[in-house]
Each structure stands twice: as structure tokens, then as C-alpha cells.
Amino acid sequence: METPHTEHLSADDWEHVYEPAEDSFLLLDALEADLDFIEKLQPCLCLEIGSGSGVLITALAKRLSHNTLCLATDINPRACIATKRTALHNGARVDSMRNNLASAIRKRCIDLLLFNPPYVVTSDEELESQRLTGETPSTERNLVYSWAGGMDGRRVTDILLEQLDDILSPSGVLYLLLLRENKPDEIIKQLQKLNFKAVKHMERRIPGEHLYILKVTRTSF
């Protein structure tokens, strides 16, 4: 898969939007390694939650057929704008909307779901203190919400997992990025109780972090 260009985004943009880093590129590599599966799946509707600059969903949109609709959501309005600009700059078709997780999406219709959540372990107090207020959240709040994960770095991830049954289509798949401190084995067991099968699809050690990509499908698929 081709890594999208981002030179259209300025230093000012990166002050408001999460800049692609090792976690982003690991998720991109995981998708590339699983392209045979993805293309056989023939997804009609793909969604990236927390798209940031839009690099991941743009790369996917460029690779998949024109019959696939690619969507992106983010609670940061600057990220929604950046995602649209990245898709346009790279000749891809992506619709981006400001939304909390997948709350605006019709139930059980997402065939391919991407989520690089805020996974850094922080205190819940730090996360709570950064709650968005008003229509123009500050730069600091925009960026904190892209990485601060609360206790075990899983506050947002756990919310998504509880909603997963209502999000994925019957044959849908989730690619989820996790940090070792997020306790991926515990998450796998949690997903089993929710009637999902999760496997460690890819992992990578980088300075200061050990990252995993979980591939999650329904147990009946």
C-alpha cells in the first residue's frame, strides 16, 4: 500500500492534529500484510475512528475498489478537515465527519474498522480535565485526546469494544492498535466473552513502546 503524501499539511496543522508516527505506520503495515484477506472480504463500507491526518483511511481508499465507501470520524474538527485535505491531495475519496466513535453510523454496517486509539496510560483525572468544551477546543485538548488513554490506556478502547457488536457487519473485521501496557491478552479474553475472536496480527518494538495490532472478527465468521 502506498503511504499518502502529507506535505500539504503545515506546521500549524501538526500543532492541532496527531502527526503519523510508528503506531500509524505499524497499522498501515498490518493492513498491507492482510490485503489478500481484505480484498476477498470486498468491504462495502470502511471506517477509521480517530483519523487524525487521514493517512490510514486515505491509503486504504486508494487501494480498494471504487465500490467501497471509506468514512472517517474524529472528535477533533481540525482532524476532520485534515483528513479531507489528505484524501483530496492524494486523489482518494474519503468522507470525514466530526463524531464520537461511530455513534452517527447505522448499526452493523461497517465491514472494515480501523482504530488507533488514545492508548497512553494516564490518570483518569488527567483525561477528565481535558474534556472538550464548546465548539472550538483548544490545541492542547485536541492533542491530549489523541494519545491520553486513562487507566491502563483503555478508557476509550473499552467503550468501543462494548459497542463493537452494534458497529461491525456480520462479516466485519476490526484492526485495533494496542500498547503492551493496555494488556492485549486481557482484551482478547474480553472480546471472547463478547463473541468475538481476536488474534495478534502484528507486533513491533520501538524505543519505549511495544505495539500490537489485534485483528478482530465475529466468532461465527
Describe this structure in words.
The chain has about 220 residues and is α/β, with parallel strands linked by helices. About 40% of the residues lie in helices and about 25% in strands. It has 9 helices and 7 strands. A 7-stranded mixed β-sheet has the order 3-2-1-4-5-7-6, sandwiched between helices. Strand 2, helix 5 and strand 3 form a beta-alpha-beta unit. Helix 2 (about 20-35) packs parallel to helix 4. The longest helix has 13 residues, at about 75-90. The protein is globular.
| Average predicted local confidence, pLDDT | 88
| Spans where pLDDT lies below 50 across 5 or more residues | 130-140
Give, in spatial order, the strands making up the sheet with the most strands: 3-2-1-4-5-7-6
What is the percent of helical residues?
25-40%
Write the layout of secondary structure elements.
Layout: H1 11-14, H2 22-33, H3 35-41, E1 45-49, H4 55-63, E2 69-74, H5 77-89, E3 95-98, E4 110-115, H6 124-129, H7 139-147, H8 155-167, E5 168-179, H9 184-193, E6 196-206, E7 209-218
Parallel strand pairs: 1-2, 1-4, 2-3, 4-5
Antiparallel strand pairs: 5-7, 6-7
Helix pairs in contact: 2-4
